[in-house]
């Protein structure tokens, strides 16, 4: 890799962004300074081959650290039969997707769907391109195509042993009629997919060369920051622009909507410090008395309310519970969480009445395009979005509020590119928060310690009601029940309970909710897996034995649980002073489990070891799966140990990492990952394991201390 | 006006003296490898070396620096990514989103400079950077491999 200067990167970005039909906004430095766009040949939408045999694979989904870029490229390359060492990647733009009848399908990158939703058509893309390349070579040699085969970017005519590389026939291949329905390989035959290959996007992240949205430079660009009313539902009452307009570098002070002010300056630091100095009076709006306490009270009311949406029913749980000799009941609660991506929200926009362009780290390029068009007031055909690698997403960058803001600012300064970056404080105060819920669980045990009935009442916030109302089913939010359904990929229960009722009393506080990595599986796993542990202890049965009895009909759930039990050594005593806990759940198409080993000394929790298991059906890159599983414990345990956004006066209290503490190196346990694919299905990987992190540790904590923690985060409880 | 020695070159930079070093690096010097994460010295994404010591540049006004002090950023750690820490990172394929990694690498390189064989406790105490993707265990392993100076095992 050569070191490029900011200037050459700049010209590269602009040059490639305007290239049509060839490369879009590339993100690999090999292109910098070169001009491959002019000679590269698109074989089909997914595959571009350069004369030097470099294969450019188009990736529709966004890379935010989860490794989907590498995994999707492996799937295309596997079918293409290309030389992996010559593979590079690029993002097609959302505008190109629209213009080409959505040839790349869905751009949305969330719900651990990157691979599990697109594996079939991306492999088809690679397979079809391979057949087109073979046909072109066969035509050149005037031999039947079925006498030729492709391997390692070389096409060979078997009878004559003639050979030609992909780069030599790519142009001819592009005009071959694409075959329909090419047979895909059995995953057992994979040579590139399924292997623990290194990521394609590592090198530039080691030298500071990787360009994130915050790093973008465009000619004539100005910098901006925003401040929105911190009170949810509040507005700007007044502000004194004159107080800061004469500050050095300040170009414009403006209000972009009812609640939001912006400062544009030569540098971001000038914009930020000017904003800090801007006198503002907020109209605190209708929610100024809202607090974490008032929200908790509201949700508490839902635990016994009659107005609940029923999702899961088996037998007669209420009747059985009413007659049961022994019932156990507990109430749990899960707080608001902020995504806290390391890269704060940002977007760069350039507006003219003829064209609006946005450069943005986004989990959904098409939604960014729609948001840009709406904010610009232009038809979508006159807008374009160039995606950049994300400095973390976790669901936050599926929302488009920051794209809208950047365009609204740019619209006030036509022709000037405006890079808008939020402060960390803005990011913390204007999240799309992991929703808050409470849950009351009541279970009945018979004389033999069998679970005969269970009622699980969830009370709290719906994400869909706020962000995707079209996904609601007759007022019910089905996503609330992730992991608690009787069937389905988004999470079906691993327990057979003869009398079961799971319902939801929807209570929506005026705090904007969003999809937060793991979504509702997170709290549902805490509720279910900790309560199952409570039932086991009440029945006087070992928690693993107790679960085994309930899981006879759920072999995939049980297999991952057995894998972690074996890995942690459940059947053998732990070292003195150490204690263990288990959890399992199914969600995002995959079966996951975790076992934790902890100790508590002088009230201090130490997590010594985590064993995790994942069955995602087919595994595209085990090395990346391992990283996602490890990372899931950082995200899940940060929430369990420290994570809480507190509401006071209708706004969030925590505004930076000194108050919104997250896990660091010293708290990080060793994680041993078992990948146990059973094949036959395609599950997600980025999210499900987060859900088992907290309950495994909480159950181990109970084993260690006898204290049942039912309200997160742990930092609020004394363990002494 | 500030006179700063950045990656071996002394530059005169026209800037308000209160400006934190991070923003001078990013906006005046064109070195965007050092990242803004929190602005309050909590996350470490802005970590650079000053005379070899790790410093959180987001809270250090350039007025506090002299041209005699050597500032090293991720761009200046090595010419070609060949620093042993970068090499260990490459072999273990450490980064996920990568945003925090410049700061992580700079913090790790500074630790190894003063403590060539850090223990786990040393690593815990000195690497206090935040990573939200969850690369900590690989960061730890990469520091140990860089310390060992041995060929790192292939990442799996």
Automatic annotation (TrEMBL), chain A:
Species of origin: Steroidobacter gossypii
Alphabetically ordered keywords of this record: Signal
PANTHER family: ALDEHYDE DEHYDROGENASE (PTHR47495)
Name of the protein this chain belongs to: Xanthine dehydrogenase family protein molybdopterin-binding subunit
Organism placement in taxonomy: Bacteria, Pseudomonadati, Pseudomonadota, Gammaproteobacteria, Steroidobacterales
Pfam families xrefs: MoCoBD_1, MoCoBD_2
InterPro entries: Ald_Oxase/Xan_DH_a/b, AldOxase/xan_DH_MoCoBD1, AldOxase/xan_DH_MoCoBD2, AldOxase/xan_DH_Mopterin-bd_sf, N-heterocyclic_Hydroxylase, OxRdtase_Mopterin-bd_su_IorB, TAT_signal
Residues in the signal sequence: 1-34
Boundaries of every Aldehyde oxidase/xanthine dehydrogenase a/b hammerhead domain copy: 207-286
Automatic annotation (TrEMBL), chain B:
Keywords of this entry: 2Fe-2S, Iron, Iron-sulfur, Metal-binding, Oxidoreductase
Domain 2Fe-2S ferredoxin-type per the UniProt entry, residue ranges: 1-77
UniProt KW rRNA-binding keyword: no
CDD domains assigned: fer2
Gene3D superfamilies hit by this protein: 3.10.20.30, [2Fe-2S]-binding domain (1.10.150.120)
Protein name (Swiss-Prot/TrEMBL): (2Fe-2S)-binding protein
Organism: Steroidobacter gossypii
């Amino acid at each position: 890799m050569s070191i490029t200067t900011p200037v050459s990167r700049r010209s590269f970005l602009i040059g490639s962004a305007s290239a049509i039909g060839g490369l879009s906004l590339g993100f690999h430095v090999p292109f910098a300074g070169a001009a491959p766009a002019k000679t590269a040949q698109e074989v089909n939408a997914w595959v571009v081959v350069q004369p030097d045999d470099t294969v450019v694979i188009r990736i529709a989904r966004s890379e935010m650290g989860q490794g989907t870029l590498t995994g999707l490229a492996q799937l295309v390359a596997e079918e293409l039969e290309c030389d992996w060492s010559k593979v590079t990647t690029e993002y097609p733009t959302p505008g190109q997707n629209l213009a080409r009848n959505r040839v790349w399908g869905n751009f949305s990158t969330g719900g651990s769907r990157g691979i599990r939703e697109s594996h079939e058509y991306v492999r088809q893309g690679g397979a079809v391109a391979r057949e087109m390349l073979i046909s072109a070579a066969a035509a050149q040699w005037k031999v039947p195509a079925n006498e030729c085969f492709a391997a390692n970017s070389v096409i060979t005519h078997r009878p004559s042993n003639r050979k030609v590389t992909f780069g030599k026939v790519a142009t001819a291949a592009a005009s071959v009629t694409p075959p329909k329905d090419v047979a895909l390989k059995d995953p057992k035959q994979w040579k590139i997919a399924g292997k623990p290959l290194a990521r394609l996007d590592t090198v530039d992240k080691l030298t500071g060369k990787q360009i994130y949205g915050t790093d973008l430079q465009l000619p004539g660009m100005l910098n901006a920051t925003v401040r929105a009313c911190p009170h949810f539902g509040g507005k700007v009452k007044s502000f004194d622009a004159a107080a800061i307009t004469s500050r050095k570098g300040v170009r414009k002070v403006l209000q972009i909507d009812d609640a939001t002010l912006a400062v544009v300056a030569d540098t971001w630091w000038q914009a930020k410090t000017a904003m800090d100095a801007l006198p503002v009076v907020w109209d605190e709006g209708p929610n100024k008395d809202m607090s974490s306490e008032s929200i908790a009270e509201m949700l508490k009311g839902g635990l016994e309310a009659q107005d609940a949406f029923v999702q899961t029913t088996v037998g007669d749980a209420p009747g059985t519970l009413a007659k049961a000799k022994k019932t156990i009941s507990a109430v749990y609660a899960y707080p608001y969480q902020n995504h806290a991506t390391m890269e704060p929200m940002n977007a760069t926009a350039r507006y003219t009445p003829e064209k609006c362009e946005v450069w943005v780290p986004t989990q959904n390029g098409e939604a960014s395009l729609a948001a840009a068009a709406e904010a610009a007031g232009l038809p979508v055909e006159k807008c374009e979005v160039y995606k950049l690698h994300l400095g973390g997403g976790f669901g936050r960058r599926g929302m488009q509020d920051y794209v809208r803001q950047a365009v609204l600012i740019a619209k006030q300064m036509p022709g000037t590119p405006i890079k808008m970056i939020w402060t960390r404080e803005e990011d913390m105060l204007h999240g799309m928060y992991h929703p808050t819920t409470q849950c009351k669980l009541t279970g009945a045990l018979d004389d033999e310690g069998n679970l005969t009935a269970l009622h699980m009442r969830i009370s709290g916030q719906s994400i869909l009601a706020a962000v995707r109302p079209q996904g609601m089913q007759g007022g019910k939010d089905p996503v609330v029940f992730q992991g608690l359904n009787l069937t389905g990929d988004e999470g079906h229960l691993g327990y057979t309970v003869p009398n079961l009722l799971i319902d939801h009393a929807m209570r929506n506080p005026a705090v904007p909710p969003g999809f937060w990595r793991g979504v509702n599986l997170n709290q549902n796993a805490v509720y279910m897996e900790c309560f199952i542990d409570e039932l086991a202890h009440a029945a006087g049965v070992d928690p693993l034995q107790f679960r085994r009895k309930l899981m006879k009909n759920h072999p995939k759930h049980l297999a991952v649980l057995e894998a972690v039990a074996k890995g942690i050594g459940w059947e053998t005593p732990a070292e003195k002073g150490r204690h263990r806990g288990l959890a399992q759940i199914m969600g995002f198409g995959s079966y996951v489990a975790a076992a934790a080993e902890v100790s508590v000394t002088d009230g201090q929790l130490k997590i010594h070891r985590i064993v995790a298991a994942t069955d995602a059906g087919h595994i595209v890159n085990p090395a990346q799966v391992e990283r996602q599983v490890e990372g899931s414990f950082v995200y899940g345990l940060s929430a369990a140990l420290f994570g809480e956004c507190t509401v006071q006066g209708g706004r969030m209290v925590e505004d930076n990492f000194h108050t919104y503490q997250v896990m660091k190196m010293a708290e990080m346990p060793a994680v041993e990952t078992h990948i146990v694919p059973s094949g036959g299905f395609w599950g997600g990987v980025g999210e499900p394991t987060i859900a088992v992190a907290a309950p495994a540790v909480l159950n181990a904590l109970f084993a260690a201390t006898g204290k049942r923690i039912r309200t997160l985060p742990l930092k609020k409880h004394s363990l002494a | 006006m500030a006179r700063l020695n950045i990656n071996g070159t002394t530059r005169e930079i026209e800037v308000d003296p209160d400006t934190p070093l991070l923003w001078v690096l990013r906006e005046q010097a064109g070195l965007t490898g050092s990242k803004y994460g929190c602005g309050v010295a909590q996350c470490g994404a802005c970590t650079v070396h000053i005379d070899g010591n790790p410093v959180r540049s987001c809270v250090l006004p350039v007025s506090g620096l002299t041209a005699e002090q050597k500032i090293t950023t991720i761009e200046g750690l090595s010419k070609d990514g060949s620093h042993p820490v970068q090499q260990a990172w490459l072999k273990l394929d450490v980064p996920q989103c990568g945003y925090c990694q410049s700061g992580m690498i700079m913090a790790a390189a500074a630790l190894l400079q003063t403590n060539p064989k850090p223990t786990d406790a040393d690593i815990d105490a000195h690497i206090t950077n935040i990573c939200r993707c969850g690369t900590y265990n690989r960061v730890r392993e990469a520091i140990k491999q860089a310390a060992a100076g041995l060929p790192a095992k292939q990442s799996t």
